[in-house]
Every structure is written in structure tokens, then in C-alpha cells.
Give the backbone structure.
Amino acid sequence: MRRNLARFAAASAMAITVLAASCPSAAGDLSIAIAPSVDNPADPQMGDHLVFETRLTNTGATPVLGVISWLSIVRVDPGQEAPIGLEDWSAEKAVTRASLAPGETIATDWPMRLIQDGHYRAVVSAASRDGTILAASPFADFTVRVKPVVQSARVIPVAAGVPLLLMLLFFMRRRASSSR
Amino acid sequence: MTPATLIARKEAGELLFSLRGLAWLLALCAALSSFTLLLVGSTELSLLDNAQVVCDMAGLITVLASLLALIVGIDATAGERERGSLVPLLLIPTPRRMILLGKLGGILIAWIAMFLLSIPYLWAVGSTGQNLAEGVALVAILGTPVVLTFGFLGMALGSWMPSARACLMTGMIALAVSASPLVIGPSLRQSAIGRIFDAINPLSGTVNAYDAVIIDGKPIIAQWPGLVLALAWLAIVLASAVAAFDRLSR
């Protein structure tokens, strides 16, 4: 009987340990709200600027240490699904804070330049130094309208071809004049 | 074939088939190619609207062609004098006005060659956008008097001044001042001085007309003030070139 009790106690301790590891810790106390800025164009097109405003709040009872939040954008057009590299889209790489006290909020604006047309979803994620899960905002969807811009496929043949033709003519004339 | 036509053909042939002329045209095309490659190479510029790019390209073509026409005009008089071929030309039994007409015709043919070379560039940057045909037409209508004005100015300077270098420097300063609207934004030209300058500068009138037609979609016919200004300058500079060339021949 005592032996059985000891086995039960050991099993219970292991279960509690596993349960504790799977419970959301620090970063799980972060909540993120996202909304487009009121100044955003109603029907944005390529080249326009959009701003998304986020509010990152510590909803827990203890401070969250080493908070990092960042913006991600994904394209969701059928057949074109892909994460977007933000080097050209957004100047804001990430927002960091050494400590976020309980109830404290970080308000951040995420400006971006719309580079390509399509349907997109923006999300802001946050992680902390000790947290075990990622906090993420709801998706903010937006559509970028196409704008006629310069097509490199048309420019490069002309930009290279016309000077090359003239150079050919130039060297032909030079050869003809030197052979005379 | 009249002597004027012969001289015009010779002048144009020097631009189109001589090594010096081909090098000038090559430099023009290299500048246009650099600008177009810059448009696709820079993220910021690649997002410019097609119409804006066509408008910028039209302005650039007009200024570069004006520069080349200025050089051709100076070369037709001061250049010939420095090479020692002007005096023999003036001694041929042909009225001086015919010689002058031939040289002016050479500048016109040079501009036609430059205009034809620039069409592929306008197509390349603007074929997917709006008002490309209107833009090309406007470069022909308004660009022609402006470019010829600078070409004739070059001839006038070449006849007045003793050295080609001094002519080139004076002509370049005139062109740089005249082309400043391309560099200075419209907001900076809203002052009283800026407005007066815009009202008398043929290149300002032309650039403003490009903007109105290509970007704003206004009718070409509504741009007659710009055309009148450009034609007025053309007439003044042509009269100056005729007077200077006559003085040269005496």
C-alpha cells in the first residue's frame, strides 16, 4: 500500500511538472490590439503609405521582462501566398522594452509603404525573455490596388539596346574611317 | 538641290554619321538610359506613376536635346571658325542667308534625330500608363521650338563670340538657368520672382504644359500660352542669329 502511494505521488509530481511547462507564462499575459490609422487612405494603391496602430498591454499580475514586438505581413492572394520582406515596406523593424509593468501599455504606430498590389494580412507579434508562447494580435486585412508603374521588362531592352546600336554604328564608322 | 539644302544635309550628316556627332548622340542616349535604369533600380522611383515618369522623361529629353542643339549650333559657327572651314564656306558664291538657312536646317534635322531616338525611351517608361501619345505629341509640338531656340542661340553666340569655349560656357549658363524649373519644385516657384521667371522662361512653359497634359490629362490645345512663349523666344533668337551671322559675313 505504501509502495503504491509512493508511485502515485511520483506520477502526480511528473504530471504537475509537465502541466506547468505547458501553461502560458509571462508572454501569455500580453495582449495586442491592432487597428488601422484613421488617416489611412480608404482605397490604398501602390506607393501609398498605411499606418497600423497597436496597443500591447500586460494583462498579467507580474511584470513582463524583455518585451519585443514586431510586425509581420503576409500576402494571401490565391497562388501568391507568401510572407513579405519588410525591408522596403516598413521602416519599423521592432519595438523593444526592458520591462512592462502589470496593466502597462505600449502604443506603437507601424508605418509602411505599399510596394505591390494584392490582398494582405498584417499581424503584430510579441515575445518576452522568459515567456514560452508567442502573443499575437488579430489580423488586420488590407488590399493594395494596382497602379501603372514603370515595367523593368520594357525598360531594360531599350536602355541597353539603343546605346548598343549607336555604339555599333560608331565603331563601324570608326573602322570605315580608319581603313580609308 | 538648293545650297541651303546641301548645307543642311552636310550639317545633319556630320551629326548622324561623323564620329563626333555619333558620340554626342551616344551621350544623349546614355543619359536617357541612365535615367530609365534609375527608375527601375530604385524602389522609391519605381513606384512613381507612369504619367509622372513620362512627364519627367519629356522634360529631360527637351533639356538634353536643347543642350545638344546648343553644341551643334556653336559648332556650326564657332567650331567651323576654329577648324578654319568657316571662311572658305563664306566665300562660296551663295547668299549668306542660304548658308545660314542650311545651318539652321542642320539643327532641325539634328533635333528630329534626337526626337526619334527618344521615342523608344518614352514608350519604355510610359506604355502601361496614361497619355503617352499626348506626351510624345507635346514633345514634338513644344519641344521643337524650345530645342531650336537653344540651337539658334548657339549659332548666334558662335557668330558673336571669338572662341567656342566662351560660347559654350555662356550657352550652358543660359540653359542651366532656363532648365532650373526641372530641379526646383513647383512649390518653390510660387514666389513673385518664381512666377515672373515662369512667365518668361520658355522651358518653364513647356514643362508646365507637359505636366498639365500628361499628368492632369488636360487637352493639348489648351497649352497654347506655352507654345506662344516658346515661339516668341524662337523668333527673338532666330532674329539674333540672323543678325549675328550677317555681321560675321561682312
